[in-house]
């Protein structure tokens, strides 16, 4: 065999560099469903199902094109992980070279490199063309920047791609329209939200759901609602559905939350993009075209473009420039354990119960639920960042480490000491009250920080400010927020501390 081309579960893209120069006469593709990939992080059943179903669909596509493929199916081979499986394949086919496209996490890259070394086979890592900036160019952009902020990166990407640009200027005369975006729904609520297009499980997906039930029955979450796009055709249809029905209201309500509404105006495209079923450029072009036709307001289009052209590319660059150290960062020295209810949703705190139950049902929560409900609570409580990371990597269908880790450690837990976010994203229960209707069905009072029914977010928020007073009081961006502590009398401070202590003990 000349080349053995390894295709990982998040690289399901025929146009990828893995296939450059592929010769079916002499080369072979290798794909494997490996139990350890689902158990090293205690994956949600829907996350495992998504990956395996998309992989099996991709394998069908390769077979239809007569591309030689060795596919190891769960339960039909004896190998727990990459080492044994790949070494056996190398021993039986004796390839002259191993090829892989840049994996989505550092651990896999390291493992593959070690296997190639051990087997004495040359190993080539090819760049991932799915992304709009390659890692070398990101490194150049990062070089010498103490505070590599999203805003600078995003503007550079707008200029580089020409997306939403009018010559040298941003379309509409502004780089962002935050003033028009990020509204709550108000008392009347969201009204009728167009139901997102879902995809009934076909024979392949049903077989996967069966296998997952058999092999991973004790894993968290459910597959009962599984209707995600698992092929490029379905991903394209999901994009069209989003652009037509939900993009126009995406901007104004991207930060809003509502009981019983898991998806609101969000696109549900992250997993399809992360598994490479659809390219970010296609998603961006469709969005920008809708704006140009006048089918969606500029504020919504820009808000959405920023997420993909800005955040998504930016976190990937940060991940690869900071790994492997990134995993160990714990700037705030947080040591608490992740509360057990994160795995069950079994808590009286309505916002957390809603977000976690929805996560277990669908493998999905939208950005503000992840950042300002589950993420915020872990930050205020002082949960050890690695435990928070393990949870997020396990429970979302779109979770791949390059995007999950910077969002969790950097954006949500401030564990990187401000590399990504200029200050910790901390707020009291009043923020959740303003952006949602959660508090109306909750036994706790978001305005109270120290009473018996004080909202745990609010008590822990003030406690957080006190615990980190020295660190942030004179901080250029966060100082203002910390100076609110001046309003508290000593006696109030001690009542809040006791309430926070009681919450910790209870958990
Ligand atoms: P939409 O709200 O419709 O947004 C459109 C797209 O923009 C998303 O599909 C995604 O590709 C991109 N995007 C939006 N925000 C971000 C961001 N902060 N970073 C990178 N891309 C972004 N996203 C993942 O893809 N995988 C993860 O494992 C993941 N973990 C997260 C953990 C935390 C603590 C936080 C705060 C955010 C995380 N995100 C993650 C980012 C974001 O929350 C999800 O991409 C989004 O909720 C997915 O839903 P959607 O496709 O409906 O997104
Ligand atoms: Fe969440 Fe506090 Fe509101 Fe209850 S009162 S829903 S715990 S923010």
| CATH architectural name of the largest domain | Orthogonal Bundle
CA distance, first residue to last residue: 57 Å
Largest beta-sheet details = 5 strands, parallel
Heterogens: flavin-adenine dinucleotide, iron/sulfur cluster
Instruction: Provide mean pLDDT, rounded.
Output: 96
The helix/strand series, from N terminus to C terminus, equals EEHHEHEHEHHEEHHHHHHHHHHHHHHH
Estimate the strand proportion: 5-15%
CATH class of the largest domain: Mainly Alpha
Looking at this structure, what is the CATH superfamily of the largest domain?
Answer: DNA Cyclobutane Dipyrimidine Photolyase, subunit A, domain 3
Oligomer: single chain
Estimated helix fraction: 40-55%
Topology:
Layout: E1 3-6, E2 27-32, H1 35-39, H2 45-64, E3 69-72, H3 82-93, E4 97-101, H4 106-119, E5 123-126, H5 135-142, H6 150-161, E6 165-166, E7 169-170, H7 203-215, H8 232-245, H9 247-253, H10 270-274, H11 280-292, H12 298-322, H13 350-362, H14 367-381, H15 385-395, H16 401-412, H17 429-435, H18 456-467, H19 469-472, H20 479-482, H21 490-506
Parallel strand pairs: 1-2, 1-4, 2-3, 4-5
Antiparallel strand pairs: 6-7
Structural write-up:
The protein is mainly alpha-helical and 507 residues long. The chain folds into three domains: 3-126, Rossmann fold (3-Layer(aba) Sandwich), CATH 3.40.50.620; 135-193 and 246-322, Serine Threonine Protein Phosphatase 5, Tetratricopeptide repeat, CATH 1.25.40.80; 340-506, DNA Cyclobutane Dipyrimidine Photolyase, subunit A, domain 3 (Orthogonal Bundle). It contains 21 helices and seven strands. The strands form two sheets. A five-stranded parallel sheet has the order 3-2-1-4-5, sandwiched between helices. Strands 6-7 form a two-stranded antiparallel ribbon. Strand 6 and strand 7 (169-170) form a beta hairpin. It is globular, with a radius of gyration of 23 Å. It starts with a strand and ends with a helix. Bound molecules: flavin-adenine dinucleotide and iron/sulfur cluster. Residues 266-270, 273-274, 307-308, 311-312, 315, 366-367, 370-371, 375, 392, 396, 398-399, 403-404, 407-408, 411-412 line the site of flavin-adenine dinucleotide (FAD). This is Cryptochrome/photolyase family protein. InterPro entries: Crypto/Photolyase_FAD-like_sf (IPR036134), PhrB-like (IPR007357), Rossmann-like_a/b/a_fold (IPR014729), UV-DNA_repair_photolyase (IPR052551).
